[in-house]
Protein backbone atom coordinates (compact mmCIF):
# COMPACT_ATOMS: atom_id res chain seq x y z
CA UNK A 1 0.00 0.00 0.00
CA UNK A 2 0.99 3.61 -0.53
CA UNK A 3 -0.56 6.42 1.41
CA UNK A 4 -0.51 9.98 0.18
CA UNK A 5 1.85 11.79 2.53
CA UNK A 6 5.07 13.78 2.87
CA UNK A 7 7.89 11.25 2.71
CA UNK A 8 9.53 9.06 0.05
CA UNK A 9 8.72 11.13 -3.06
CA UNK A 10 7.19 9.30 -6.01
CA UNK A 11 7.46 10.99 -9.39
CA UNK A 12 4.43 11.97 -11.44
CA UNK A 13 5.20 9.49 -14.19
CA UNK A 14 4.63 6.62 -11.75
CA UNK A 15 1.42 7.99 -10.30
CA UNK A 16 -1.27 5.28 -10.30
CA UNK A 17 -3.92 4.87 -12.95
CA UNK A 18 -6.99 6.83 -11.99
CA UNK A 19 -4.99 9.51 -10.14
CA UNK A 20 -3.35 12.18 -12.35
CA UNK A 21 -1.02 14.41 -10.35
CA UNK A 22 1.87 16.69 -11.22
CA UNK A 23 3.57 16.00 -7.93
CA UNK A 24 2.64 13.13 -5.64
CA UNK A 25 4.38 12.53 -2.36
CA UNK A 26 3.89 9.19 -0.69
CA UNK A 27 5.16 6.97 2.06
CA UNK A 28 5.07 3.21 1.96
CA UNK A 29 2.85 1.34 4.38
CA UNK A 30 4.76 -1.64 5.75
CA UNK A 31 3.93 -4.26 8.38
CA UNK A 32 6.75 -2.85 10.52
CA UNK A 33 5.21 0.60 10.89
CA UNK A 34 1.77 1.24 12.38
CA UNK A 35 -0.31 4.38 11.93
CA UNK A 36 1.00 5.43 15.35
CA UNK A 37 4.51 4.99 13.98
CA UNK A 38 3.71 7.31 11.10
CA UNK A 39 2.41 9.93 13.48
CA UNK A 40 5.56 9.69 15.56
CA UNK A 41 7.86 9.84 12.53
CA UNK A 42 6.06 12.35 10.33
CA UNK A 43 3.85 14.22 12.78
CA UNK A 44 0.68 13.62 10.76
CA UNK A 45 -1.44 10.82 9.33
CA UNK A 46 -1.58 9.86 5.60
CA UNK A 47 -3.10 12.55 3.42
CA UNK A 48 -3.38 14.11 0.00
CA UNK A 49 -0.92 16.96 -0.59
CA UNK A 50 -1.47 18.45 -4.02
CA UNK A 51 -2.65 18.03 -7.58
CA UNK A 52 -2.05 20.22 -10.57
CA UNK A 53 -5.43 21.88 -10.01
CA UNK A 54 -4.88 22.78 -6.36
CA UNK A 55 -4.60 26.46 -5.53
CA UNK A 56 -5.40 28.74 -2.57
CA UNK A 57 -8.95 29.35 -3.81
CA UNK A 58 -10.00 25.74 -4.38
CA UNK A 59 -11.62 25.38 -0.97
CA UNK A 60 -14.46 27.58 -2.20
CA UNK A 61 -14.90 25.57 -5.43
CA UNK A 62 -14.03 21.96 -4.61
CA UNK A 63 -14.28 20.53 -8.13
CA UNK A 64 -14.64 21.72 -11.71
CA UNK A 65 -17.13 18.87 -12.28
CA UNK A 66 -20.60 19.97 -11.22
CA UNK A 67 -22.36 17.40 -9.02
CA UNK A 68 -25.82 17.72 -7.47
CA UNK A 69 -25.46 18.68 -3.82
CA UNK A 70 -28.75 19.56 -2.09
CA UNK A 71 -27.06 19.33 1.31
CA UNK A 72 -23.34 20.21 1.24
CA UNK A 73 -20.58 18.36 3.04
CA UNK A 74 -19.72 20.26 6.26
CA UNK A 75 -16.67 22.52 6.10
CA UNK A 76 -13.39 21.41 7.64
CA UNK A 77 -10.23 23.38 8.24
CA UNK A 78 -8.77 25.39 5.32
CA UNK A 79 -6.00 22.80 5.04
CA UNK A 80 -8.52 19.97 4.80
CA UNK A 81 -10.63 21.85 2.25
CA UNK A 82 -7.62 22.42 0.01
CA UNK A 83 -6.60 18.76 0.14
CA UNK A 84 -10.17 17.60 -0.40
CA UNK A 85 -10.45 19.90 -3.42
CA UNK A 86 -7.29 18.40 -4.88
CA UNK A 87 -8.66 14.89 -4.43
CA UNK A 88 -12.00 15.73 -6.04
CA UNK A 89 -10.25 17.36 -8.96
CA UNK A 90 -8.35 14.16 -9.78
CA UNK A 91 -11.69 12.70 -10.83
CA UNK A 92 -13.06 15.90 -12.38
CA UNK A 93 -10.09 16.47 -14.66
CA UNK A 94 -10.65 13.08 -16.31
CA UNK A 95 -14.21 13.88 -17.43
CA UNK A 96 -14.30 15.35 -20.96
CA UNK A 97 -16.73 18.11 -21.85
CA UNK A 98 -18.91 15.80 -23.94
CA UNK A 99 -19.69 13.67 -20.86
CA UNK A 100 -20.69 16.59 -18.65
CA UNK A 101 -24.29 17.61 -18.06
CA UNK A 102 -25.12 21.13 -19.17
CA UNK A 103 -24.89 23.97 -16.61
CA UNK A 104 -28.56 24.73 -17.34
CA UNK A 105 -29.57 21.33 -15.98
CA UNK A 106 -28.24 22.16 -12.53
CA UNK A 107 -30.26 25.38 -12.28
CA UNK A 108 -33.50 23.43 -11.77
CA UNK A 109 -32.91 19.67 -11.52
CA UNK A 110 -35.78 17.22 -10.92
CA UNK A 111 -36.04 15.33 -7.64
CA UNK A 112 -36.21 12.04 -9.55
CA UNK A 113 -33.03 11.86 -11.64
CA UNK A 114 -33.25 8.17 -12.52
CA UNK A 115 -34.25 8.80 -16.16
CA UNK A 116 -31.82 11.64 -16.89
CA UNK A 117 -29.10 9.36 -18.37
CA UNK A 118 -31.57 8.36 -21.10
CA UNK A 119 -32.84 11.87 -21.85
CA UNK A 120 -29.69 13.99 -21.49
CA UNK A 121 -28.37 13.19 -24.98
CA UNK A 122 -24.95 11.95 -23.91
CA UNK A 123 -25.58 8.24 -24.56
CA UNK A 124 -26.15 6.79 -28.03
CA UNK A 125 -29.20 4.56 -28.67
CA UNK A 126 -26.94 1.49 -28.60
CA UNK A 127 -25.39 2.57 -25.29
CA UNK A 128 -28.86 3.06 -23.84
CA UNK A 129 -29.81 -0.46 -24.95
CA UNK A 130 -26.63 -1.96 -23.47
CA UNK A 131 -27.17 -0.31 -20.09
CA UNK A 132 -30.98 -0.65 -19.94
CA UNK A 133 -31.90 -4.00 -21.47
CA UNK A 134 -29.33 -6.48 -20.19
CA UNK A 135 -28.39 -7.95 -16.86
CA UNK A 136 -24.88 -9.33 -16.23
CA UNK A 137 -25.74 -12.80 -17.51
CA UNK A 138 -27.29 -11.32 -20.64
CA UNK A 139 -24.29 -9.08 -21.26
CA UNK A 140 -21.85 -11.97 -20.87
CA UNK A 141 -23.88 -13.97 -23.38
CA UNK A 142 -24.12 -11.05 -25.83
CA UNK A 143 -20.37 -10.40 -25.71
CA UNK A 144 -19.56 -14.09 -26.13
CA UNK A 145 -21.92 -14.21 -29.13
CA UNK A 146 -20.22 -11.05 -30.51
CA UNK A 147 -23.42 -9.03 -30.51
CA UNK A 148 -21.45 -6.39 -28.60
CA UNK A 149 -17.74 -5.96 -28.09
CA UNK A 150 -16.31 -5.63 -24.60
CA UNK A 151 -15.15 -2.14 -25.61
CA UNK A 152 -18.71 -1.11 -26.51
CA UNK A 153 -19.98 -2.38 -23.17
CA UNK A 154 -17.18 -0.79 -21.14
CA UNK A 155 -17.71 2.51 -22.93
CA UNK A 156 -21.47 2.48 -22.35
CA UNK A 157 -21.22 1.75 -18.64
CA UNK A 158 -18.31 4.12 -18.06
CA UNK A 159 -20.29 6.94 -19.69
CA UNK A 160 -23.48 6.14 -17.81
CA UNK A 161 -21.56 5.88 -14.53
CA UNK A 162 -20.11 9.38 -14.83
CA UNK A 163 -23.55 10.75 -15.74
CA UNK A 164 -24.94 8.99 -12.66
CA UNK A 165 -22.17 10.51 -10.55
CA UNK A 166 -23.09 14.05 -11.60
CA UNK A 167 -26.66 13.31 -10.50
CA UNK A 168 -26.06 11.33 -7.28
CA UNK A 169 -22.38 11.68 -6.26
CA UNK A 170 -22.03 7.90 -6.30
CA UNK A 171 -18.38 7.58 -7.39
CA UNK A 172 -15.04 8.12 -5.70
CA UNK A 173 -12.88 7.16 -8.70
CA UNK A 174 -13.56 6.71 -12.42
CA UNK A 175 -11.11 5.14 -14.83
CA UNK A 176 -12.76 4.80 -18.22
CA UNK A 177 -9.48 4.73 -20.15
CA UNK A 178 -8.16 1.78 -18.16
CA UNK A 179 -11.49 -0.04 -18.56
CA UNK A 180 -11.47 0.38 -22.35
CA UNK A 181 -7.85 -0.78 -22.53
CA UNK A 182 -8.74 -3.97 -20.62
CA UNK A 183 -11.88 -4.46 -22.72
CA UNK A 184 -9.81 -4.22 -25.91
CA UNK A 185 -7.50 -6.94 -24.59
CA UNK A 186 -10.54 -9.13 -24.00
CA UNK A 187 -11.89 -8.44 -27.50
CA UNK A 188 -8.50 -9.31 -28.98
CA UNK A 189 -8.43 -12.56 -27.00
CA UNK A 190 -11.91 -13.55 -28.20
CA UNK A 191 -11.01 -12.68 -31.79
CA UNK A 192 -7.79 -14.69 -31.64
CA UNK A 193 -8.97 -17.78 -29.74
CA UNK A 194 -12.71 -17.89 -30.40
CA UNK A 195 -13.32 -18.34 -26.66
CA UNK A 196 -13.84 -16.06 -23.68
CA UNK A 197 -11.38 -15.80 -20.80
CA UNK A 198 -14.12 -16.75 -18.35
CA UNK A 199 -17.77 -16.32 -17.38
CA UNK A 200 -17.42 -12.56 -16.68
CA UNK A 201 -15.71 -11.83 -20.02
CA UNK A 202 -16.30 -8.13 -20.68
CA UNK A 203 -18.86 -7.64 -17.88
CA UNK A 204 -18.31 -4.29 -16.10
CA UNK A 205 -18.21 -4.60 -12.31
CA UNK A 206 -18.27 -1.64 -9.90
CA UNK A 207 -16.42 -1.87 -6.60
CA UNK A 208 -16.96 -0.21 -3.21
CA UNK A 209 -14.26 2.28 -2.20
CA UNK A 210 -12.58 0.26 0.55
CA UNK A 211 -12.01 -2.84 -1.59
CA UNK A 212 -8.59 -2.69 -3.18
CA UNK A 213 -8.04 -2.58 -6.95
CA UNK A 214 -4.42 -2.43 -8.12
CA UNK A 215 -3.50 1.05 -9.30
CA UNK A 216 -6.32 2.87 -7.49
CA UNK A 217 -6.89 4.30 -4.04
CA UNK A 218 -8.87 2.88 -1.15
CA UNK A 219 -10.01 4.46 2.11
CA UNK A 220 -12.17 4.00 5.19
CA UNK A 221 -14.24 6.97 4.08
CA UNK A 222 -11.96 9.67 5.46
CA UNK A 223 -9.19 11.73 3.92
CA UNK A 224 -6.67 10.52 6.50
CA UNK A 225 -7.21 6.90 5.51
CA UNK A 226 -6.55 7.27 1.76
CA UNK A 227 -4.17 4.52 0.64
CA UNK A 228 -2.77 3.56 -2.74
CA UNK A 229 -3.36 -0.10 -3.66
CA UNK A 230 -0.52 -1.88 -5.39
CA UNK A 231 -2.46 -5.16 -5.60
CA UNK A 232 -6.00 -6.44 -6.05
CA UNK A 233 -7.84 -7.87 -3.07
CA UNK A 234 -8.70 -11.54 -3.56
CA UNK A 235 -12.29 -10.84 -4.61
CA UNK A 236 -11.18 -8.42 -7.32
CA UNK A 237 -8.43 -10.81 -8.40
CA UNK A 238 -10.96 -13.61 -8.88
CA UNK A 239 -13.33 -11.39 -10.85
CA UNK A 240 -10.49 -10.07 -13.00
CA UNK A 241 -9.31 -13.60 -13.78
CA UNK A 242 -12.80 -14.43 -15.05
CA UNK A 243 -12.90 -11.44 -17.40
CA UNK A 244 -14.56 -8.70 -15.34
CA UNK A 245 -13.79 -5.11 -16.35
CA UNK A 246 -13.33 -2.53 -13.58
CA UNK A 247 -14.18 1.08 -14.35
CA UNK A 248 -15.07 2.85 -11.10
CA UNK A 249 -15.12 2.79 -7.33
CA UNK A 250 -18.12 3.92 -5.32
CA UNK A 251 -18.84 6.11 -2.32
CA UNK A 252 -19.24 5.07 1.30
CA UNK A 253 -19.65 6.90 4.65
CA UNK A 254 -17.06 8.48 6.88
CA UNK A 255 -15.37 5.55 8.70
CA UNK A 256 -17.81 3.27 6.82
CA UNK A 257 -20.26 2.89 9.76
CA UNK A 258 -23.33 4.86 8.61
CA UNK A 259 -26.52 3.95 6.82
CA UNK A 260 -25.87 7.03 4.65
CA UNK A 261 -22.93 7.38 2.26
CA UNK A 262 -21.49 10.79 3.04
CA UNK A 263 -17.72 11.14 2.98
CA UNK A 264 -15.04 13.61 1.91
CA UNK A 265 -16.01 12.59 -1.64
CA UNK A 266 -19.48 14.03 -1.08
CA UNK A 267 -23.02 12.93 -0.22
CA UNK A 268 -24.57 10.15 -2.31
CA UNK A 269 -28.18 10.92 -3.28
CA UNK A 270 -31.14 8.67 -3.89
CA UNK A 271 -31.84 8.46 -7.64
CA UNK A 272 -35.62 8.52 -7.14
CA UNK A 273 -35.75 11.45 -4.73
CA UNK A 274 -32.56 13.42 -4.20
CA UNK A 275 -33.85 14.74 -0.87
CA UNK A 276 -33.41 11.18 0.39
CA UNK A 277 -30.39 9.05 1.19
CA UNK A 278 -29.03 6.25 -0.99
CA UNK A 279 -28.18 4.33 2.17
CA UNK A 280 -24.86 3.11 3.51
CA UNK A 281 -22.32 1.99 3.82
CA UNK A 282 -22.44 0.70 0.23
CA UNK A 283 -24.68 3.55 -0.90
CA UNK A 284 -22.58 4.47 -3.91
CA UNK A 285 -23.00 0.94 -5.24
CA UNK A 286 -26.76 0.91 -4.76
CA UNK A 287 -27.24 4.33 -6.35
CA UNK A 288 -25.07 3.41 -9.33
CA UNK A 289 -26.90 0.11 -9.91
CA UNK A 290 -30.26 1.90 -9.61
CA UNK A 291 -29.07 4.51 -12.14
CA UNK A 292 -28.10 1.62 -14.44
CA UNK A 293 -24.52 2.82 -14.43
CA UNK A 294 -23.58 -0.61 -13.13
CA UNK A 295 -24.98 -4.02 -13.89
CA UNK A 296 -23.17 -5.75 -11.01
CA UNK A 297 -21.42 -4.34 -7.96
CA UNK A 298 -19.63 -5.54 -4.84
CA UNK A 299 -20.22 -4.18 -1.33
CA UNK A 300 -19.79 -5.13 2.31
CA UNK A 301 -22.21 -5.46 5.22
CA UNK A 302 -21.69 -5.42 9.00
CA UNK A 303 -24.98 -3.83 10.04
CA UNK A 304 -27.00 -3.48 6.86
CA UNK A 305 -24.42 -1.93 4.54
CA UNK A 306 -25.53 -3.94 1.50
CA UNK A 307 -29.17 -4.50 2.38
CA UNK A 308 -29.91 -0.95 3.56
CA UNK A 309 -28.70 0.74 0.36
CA UNK A 310 -30.37 -1.93 -1.77
CA UNK A 311 -33.61 -1.20 0.07
CA UNK A 312 -33.25 2.58 -0.27
CA UNK A 313 -32.55 2.33 -4.01
CA UNK A 314 -34.87 -0.54 -4.96
CA UNK A 315 -32.28 -3.05 -6.20
CA UNK A 316 -31.08 -6.50 -5.21
CA UNK A 317 -28.51 -6.74 -2.42
CA UNK A 318 -27.24 -9.94 -0.83
CA UNK A 319 -25.43 -10.28 2.51
CA UNK A 320 -23.96 -13.74 2.84
CA UNK A 321 -23.34 -15.56 6.07
CA UNK A 322 -19.86 -14.57 7.27
CA UNK A 323 -16.92 -16.12 5.42
CA UNK A 324 -18.96 -17.53 2.56
CA UNK A 325 -17.09 -15.12 0.24
CA UNK A 326 -13.48 -13.87 0.44
CA UNK A 327 -12.58 -10.59 2.15
CA UNK A 328 -8.80 -10.96 2.09
CA UNK A 329 -6.99 -7.62 1.61
CA UNK A 330 -10.08 -5.45 1.88
CA UNK A 331 -9.02 -2.15 3.45
CA UNK A 332 -10.57 -1.91 6.94
CA UNK A 333 -11.10 -5.67 7.17
CA UNK A 334 -9.21 -5.66 10.50
CA UNK A 335 -11.97 -3.68 12.19
CA UNK A 336 -12.39 -3.80 16.02
CA UNK A 337 -16.11 -4.51 15.65
CA UNK A 338 -15.20 -7.84 14.06
CA UNK A 339 -14.08 -9.13 17.43
CA UNK A 340 -17.79 -9.83 17.88
CA UNK A 341 -19.65 -8.93 14.65
CA UNK A 342 -18.07 -10.20 11.45
CA UNK A 343 -18.48 -8.27 8.22
CA UNK A 344 -19.77 -10.01 5.11
CA UNK A 345 -19.38 -9.17 1.46
CA UNK A 346 -21.78 -9.69 -1.41
CA UNK A 347 -23.22 -8.49 -4.71
CA UNK A 348 -25.66 -5.81 -5.86
CA UNK A 349 -27.60 -6.50 -9.04
CA UNK A 350 -30.72 -5.76 -11.06
CA UNK A 351 -31.79 -9.40 -11.45
CA UNK A 352 -32.06 -12.42 -9.18
CA UNK A 353 -30.13 -14.63 -11.56
CA UNK A 354 -27.18 -12.22 -11.47
CA UNK A 355 -26.81 -12.78 -7.71
CA UNK A 356 -26.69 -16.51 -8.37
CA UNK A 357 -24.28 -16.02 -11.29
CA UNK A 358 -21.92 -14.03 -9.09
CA UNK A 359 -22.02 -16.51 -6.22
CA UNK A 360 -21.66 -19.68 -8.24
CA UNK A 361 -18.66 -18.41 -10.18
CA UNK A 362 -16.80 -16.98 -7.19
CA UNK A 363 -17.31 -20.15 -5.14
CA UNK A 364 -16.40 -22.31 -8.13
CA UNK A 365 -12.89 -20.73 -7.92
CA UNK A 366 -12.41 -22.19 -4.40
CA UNK A 367 -11.59 -18.90 -2.67
CA UNK A 368 -10.82 -20.77 0.57
CA UNK A 369 -7.52 -21.92 -0.95
CA UNK A 370 -6.24 -18.31 -0.70
CA UNK A 371 -8.48 -16.79 1.98
CA UNK A 372 -8.42 -19.50 4.64
CA UNK A 373 -11.27 -17.90 6.59
CA UNK A 374 -13.72 -18.80 3.81
CA UNK A 375 -15.85 -21.82 4.64
CA UNK A 376 -15.66 -24.34 1.75
CA UNK A 377 -19.40 -24.69 1.18
CA UNK A 378 -20.84 -25.97 -2.10
CA UNK A 379 -23.14 -23.58 -3.96
CA UNK A 380 -26.39 -24.84 -5.48
CA UNK A 381 -28.15 -21.46 -5.42
CA UNK A 382 -31.37 -21.17 -7.42
CA UNK A 383 -31.19 -24.87 -8.25
CA UNK A 384 -31.52 -25.83 -4.58
CA UNK A 385 -34.55 -27.97 -3.81
CA UNK A 386 -36.79 -26.24 -1.29
CA UNK A 387 -39.28 -27.77 1.09
CA UNK A 388 -42.91 -27.80 -0.08
CA UNK A 389 -44.86 -26.20 1.33
CA UNK A 390 -42.20 -23.64 2.17
CA UNK A 391 -42.80 -22.37 5.71
CA UNK A 392 -42.65 -18.58 5.52
CA UNK A 393 -42.66 -16.31 8.56
CA UNK A 394 -43.96 -12.79 7.97
CA UNK A 395 -42.49 -10.00 10.11
CA UNK A 396 -45.08 -7.23 10.56
CA UNK A 397 -42.85 -5.51 13.09
CA UNK A 398 -39.90 -6.54 15.23
CA UNK A 399 -41.52 -5.63 18.55
CA UNK A 400 -39.24 -2.59 18.81
CA UNK A 401 -39.98 -0.25 15.89
CA UNK A 402 -43.19 -0.25 13.84
CA UNK A 403 -42.35 0.22 10.14
CA UNK A 404 -43.56 3.33 8.36
CA UNK A 405 -46.79 3.04 6.30
CA UNK A 406 -45.46 2.14 2.81
CA UNK A 407 -43.37 -0.67 4.27
CA UNK A 408 -46.46 -2.01 6.03
CA UNK A 409 -48.23 -1.85 2.67
CA UNK A 410 -45.47 -3.90 1.01
CA UNK A 411 -45.61 -6.54 3.75
CA UNK A 412 -49.38 -6.78 3.30
CA UNK A 413 -48.93 -7.07 -0.48
CA UNK A 414 -46.51 -9.97 -0.07
CA UNK A 415 -48.67 -11.74 2.51
CA UNK A 416 -51.76 -11.50 0.29
CA UNK A 417 -49.96 -12.98 -2.70
CA UNK A 418 -48.32 -15.78 -0.76
CA UNK A 419 -51.56 -16.64 1.07
CA UNK A 420 -53.61 -16.97 -2.11
CA UNK A 421 -55.40 -20.36 -1.93
CA UNK A 422 -53.95 -21.32 -5.31
CA UNK A 423 -50.50 -21.29 -3.65
CA UNK A 424 -51.45 -23.41 -0.65
CA UNK A 425 -49.39 -26.38 -1.83
CA UNK A 426 -46.33 -24.16 -2.21
CA UNK A 427 -46.38 -21.90 0.83
CA UNK A 428 -47.40 -22.09 4.47
CA UNK A 429 -47.61 -18.50 5.68
CA UNK A 430 -47.50 -17.56 9.37
CA UNK A 431 -46.55 -14.65 11.60
CA UNK A 432 -42.98 -14.43 12.86
CA UNK A 433 -41.70 -12.41 15.81
CA UNK A 434 -37.94 -11.79 15.87
CA UNK A 435 -36.46 -12.60 19.26
CA UNK A 436 -35.80 -9.53 21.44
CA UNK A 437 -34.93 -7.00 18.73
CA UNK A 438 -34.55 -4.18 21.27
CA UNK A 439 -31.89 -6.10 23.17
CA UNK A 440 -30.14 -7.02 19.91
CA UNK A 441 -29.94 -3.35 18.90
CA UNK A 442 -28.50 -2.32 22.25
CA UNK A 443 -25.90 -5.09 22.20
CA UNK A 444 -24.67 -4.64 18.65
CA UNK A 445 -24.27 -0.88 18.98
CA UNK A 446 -21.85 -1.50 21.85
CA UNK A 447 -20.02 -4.23 19.95
CA UNK A 448 -19.31 -2.00 16.96
CA UNK A 449 -17.00 0.33 18.91
CA UNK A 450 -15.10 -1.46 21.72
CA UNK A 451 -12.68 1.47 21.67
CA UNK A 452 -15.59 3.93 22.10
CA UNK A 453 -14.67 5.54 18.78
CA UNK A 454 -11.84 7.51 20.42
CA UNK A 455 -9.01 6.45 18.10
CA UNK A 456 -11.25 6.65 15.04
CA UNK A 457 -12.31 10.19 15.92
CA UNK A 458 -8.72 11.35 16.40
CA UNK A 459 -7.74 9.67 13.13
CA UNK A 460 -10.45 11.42 11.10
CA UNK A 461 -9.82 14.82 12.69
CA UNK A 462 -6.04 14.66 12.20
CA UNK A 463 -6.42 16.23 8.73
CA UNK A 464 -8.94 18.84 9.82
CA UNK A 465 -11.88 16.81 8.52
CA UNK A 466 -15.15 17.48 10.39
CA UNK A 467 -16.86 14.65 12.23
CA UNK A 468 -20.26 14.02 10.65
CA UNK A 469 -23.48 13.86 12.63
CA UNK A 470 -24.13 10.19 11.92
CA UNK A 471 -20.51 9.29 12.71
CA UNK A 472 -20.86 10.89 16.13
CA UNK A 473 -24.25 9.26 16.63
CA UNK A 474 -22.76 5.84 15.87
CA UNK A 475 -20.31 6.19 18.74
CA UNK A 476 -22.84 7.59 21.22
CA UNK A 477 -23.71 4.41 23.12
CA UNK A 478 -20.12 3.21 23.13
CA UNK A 479 -18.73 6.50 24.43
CA UNK A 480 -20.83 6.33 27.59
CA UNK A 481 -19.09 3.06 28.57
CA UNK A 482 -15.61 4.17 27.55
CA UNK A 483 -12.86 1.99 26.10
CA UNK A 484 -13.44 -1.68 26.90
CA UNK A 485 -10.68 -3.89 28.26
CA UNK A 486 -10.09 -7.48 27.10
CA UNK A 487 -12.36 -8.97 29.77
CA UNK A 488 -15.22 -6.67 28.80
CA UNK A 489 -14.85 -7.49 25.09
CA UNK A 490 -14.86 -11.17 26.01
CA UNK A 491 -18.01 -10.65 28.05
CA UNK A 492 -19.68 -9.13 25.00
CA UNK A 493 -18.69 -12.26 23.08
CA UNK A 494 -20.40 -14.41 25.73
CA UNK A 495 -23.52 -12.23 25.57
CA UNK A 496 -23.54 -12.47 21.78
CA UNK A 497 -23.33 -16.26 21.83
CA UNK A 498 -26.05 -16.52 24.48
CA UNK A 499 -28.29 -14.29 22.35
CA UNK A 500 -27.62 -16.44 19.28
CA UNK A 501 -28.67 -19.60 21.10
CA UNK A 502 -31.83 -17.92 22.34
CA UNK A 503 -32.55 -16.61 18.86
CA UNK A 504 -32.26 -20.01 17.18
CA UNK A 505 -34.46 -21.54 19.90
CA UNK A 506 -37.12 -18.94 19.09
CA UNK A 507 -36.72 -19.60 15.34
CA UNK A 508 -37.13 -23.34 15.88
CA UNK A 509 -40.24 -22.92 18.01
CA UNK A 510 -41.85 -20.78 15.30
CA UNK A 511 -41.12 -23.49 12.70
CA UNK A 512 -40.15 -21.48 9.65
CA UNK A 513 -37.74 -22.06 6.77
CA UNK A 514 -37.37 -18.39 5.83
CA UNK A 515 -38.74 -15.06 7.01
CA UNK A 516 -39.91 -12.08 4.97
CA UNK A 517 -40.00 -8.62 6.48
CA UNK A 518 -38.80 -5.03 6.29
CA UNK A 519 -35.25 -4.14 5.32
CA UNK A 520 -35.52 -0.80 7.11
CA UNK A 521 -37.97 1.08 9.30
CA UNK A 522 -39.23 2.92 6.23
CA UNK A 523 -38.33 3.79 2.67
CA UNK A 524 -35.08 5.68 2.07
CA UNK A 525 -34.47 8.10 4.93
CA UNK A 526 -34.15 11.86 4.67
CA UNK A 527 -30.52 12.96 4.77
CA UNK A 528 -28.74 12.49 8.11
CA UNK A 529 -31.68 10.65 9.72
CA UNK A 530 -30.84 6.96 9.14
CA UNK A 531 -30.63 6.21 12.85
CA UNK A 532 -32.27 2.83 13.31
CA UNK A 533 -30.84 -0.18 11.47
CA UNK A 534 -32.69 -2.69 13.61
CA UNK A 535 -34.21 -4.66 10.73
CA UNK A 536 -30.77 -5.36 9.24
CA UNK A 537 -28.31 -5.33 12.15
CA UNK A 538 -30.24 -8.09 13.94
CA UNK A 539 -29.22 -10.50 11.18
CA UNK A 540 -25.56 -9.44 11.49
CA UNK A 541 -25.65 -10.17 15.21
CA UNK A 542 -26.93 -13.72 14.63
CA UNK A 543 -24.98 -14.03 11.33
CA UNK A 544 -27.91 -15.09 9.14
CA UNK A 545 -27.87 -14.46 5.37
CA UNK A 546 -30.30 -11.99 3.83
CA UNK A 547 -31.38 -10.78 0.41
CA UNK A 548 -33.20 -7.52 -0.27
CA UNK A 549 -35.55 -7.83 -3.24
CA UNK A 550 -37.44 -5.10 -5.14
CA UNK A 551 -41.22 -4.80 -5.25
CA UNK A 552 -43.49 -2.80 -7.58
CA UNK A 553 -44.47 -0.58 -4.63
CA UNK A 554 -43.45 3.07 -4.30
CA UNK A 555 -44.27 5.76 -1.78
CA UNK A 556 -47.43 7.55 -2.88
CA UNK A 557 -48.17 10.93 -1.38
CA UNK A 558 -48.30 11.31 2.37
CA UNK A 559 -49.43 7.93 3.68
CA UNK A 560 -50.77 7.88 7.22
CA UNK A 561 -50.10 5.66 10.21
CA UNK A 562 -53.01 3.50 11.37
CA UNK A 563 -55.49 5.32 13.65
CA UNK A 564 -54.83 2.82 16.46
CA UNK A 565 -51.02 3.17 16.26
CA UNK A 566 -49.21 3.05 19.59
CA UNK A 567 -45.41 3.40 19.74
CA UNK A 568 -43.53 0.27 20.74
CA UNK A 569 -40.60 2.28 22.14
CA UNK A 570 -39.12 5.76 22.21
CA UNK A 571 -37.25 4.83 19.05
CA UNK A 572 -40.53 3.82 17.43
CA UNK A 573 -42.04 7.18 18.35
CA UNK A 574 -39.04 8.95 16.81
CA UNK A 575 -39.42 6.97 13.57
CA UNK A 576 -43.01 8.23 13.26
CA UNK A 577 -41.83 11.80 13.85
CA UNK A 578 -39.21 11.40 11.10
CA UNK A 579 -41.91 10.17 8.72
CA UNK A 580 -44.06 13.22 9.38
CA UNK A 581 -41.20 15.69 8.83
CA UNK A 582 -40.19 14.78 5.27
CA UNK A 583 -41.51 13.88 1.84
CA UNK A 584 -40.61 10.40 0.58
CA UNK A 585 -42.48 10.62 -2.71
CA UNK A 586 -41.28 8.12 -5.31
CA UNK A 587 -39.03 6.12 -3.01
CA UNK A 588 -38.97 2.39 -3.83
CA UNK A 589 -40.09 -0.19 -1.28
CA UNK A 590 -38.36 -3.54 -0.91
CA UNK A 591 -38.55 -6.69 1.18
CA UNK A 592 -35.85 -8.54 3.09
CA UNK A 593 -35.75 -12.34 3.04
CA UNK A 594 -33.61 -14.26 5.54
CA UNK A 595 -32.67 -17.87 6.23
CA UNK A 596 -30.66 -19.72 8.86
CA UNK A 597 -26.93 -19.29 9.29
CA UNK A 598 -24.97 -20.95 6.46
CA UNK A 599 -28.22 -21.90 4.71
CA UNK A 600 -27.36 -19.49 1.90
CA UNK A 601 -28.17 -21.92 -0.91
CA UNK A 602 -31.43 -22.82 0.82
CA UNK A 603 -32.27 -19.12 0.84
CA UNK A 604 -31.77 -19.03 -2.93
CA UNK A 605 -33.85 -22.18 -3.37
CA UNK A 606 -36.65 -20.36 -1.57
CA UNK A 607 -36.13 -17.29 -3.77
CA UNK A 608 -36.57 -19.47 -6.85
CA UNK A 609 -39.97 -20.52 -5.49
CA UNK A 610 -40.93 -16.93 -4.66
CA UNK A 611 -39.81 -15.41 -7.95
CA UNK A 612 -43.08 -15.48 -9.87
CA UNK A 613 -45.40 -14.83 -6.94
CA UNK A 614 -43.47 -11.75 -5.79
CA UNK A 615 -42.75 -10.57 -9.35
CA UNK A 616 -38.98 -10.71 -8.85
CA UNK A 617 -37.02 -9.61 -11.96
What characterizes the major β-sheet?
A: 11 strands, mixed
Strand order of the largest sheet: 3-7-4-10-12-11-16-17-15-13-14
Overall pLDDT score: 91
Would you tell me the structural class of the helices and strands? alpha+beta
Evaluate the radius of gyration: 23 Å
Low-confidence runs: 1-62
Helix content: 25-40%
Q: What is the molecular shape?
A: globular
Number of strands: 17
How far the N terminus sits from the C terminus, by CA atoms, comes to 40 Å
Beta-strand fraction estimate: 5-15%
Helical element count? Answer: 19
Question: Could you characterize what this model shows?
Answer:
The protein is α+β, with helices and mostly antiparallel strands. It has a domain at 2-92. It contains 19 helices and 17 strands. Strand 8 (262-263) and strand 9 form a beta hairpin. The longest helix has 25 residues, at 486-510. The chain is globular and about 60 Å long. It starts with a strand and ends in a 7-residue tail after the last helix.
Question: Can you describe this structure in just a few lines?
Answer:
This protein is α+β, with helices and mostly antiparallel strands and 617 residues long. It has helices spanning 35-42, 78-92, 116-119, 125-132, 136-144, 150-168, 176-193, 234-241, 283-290, 307-313, 352-364, 405-418, 437-448, 454-461, 469-481, 486-510, 534-542, 570-581, 600-610; strands at residues 2-10, 24-28, 171-174, 204-208, 217-218, 227-228, 245-250, 262-263, 266-267, 296-301, 316-319, 344-349, 390-394, 427-431, 514-517, 546-554, 588-594. Helices cover 36% and strands 13% of the residues.
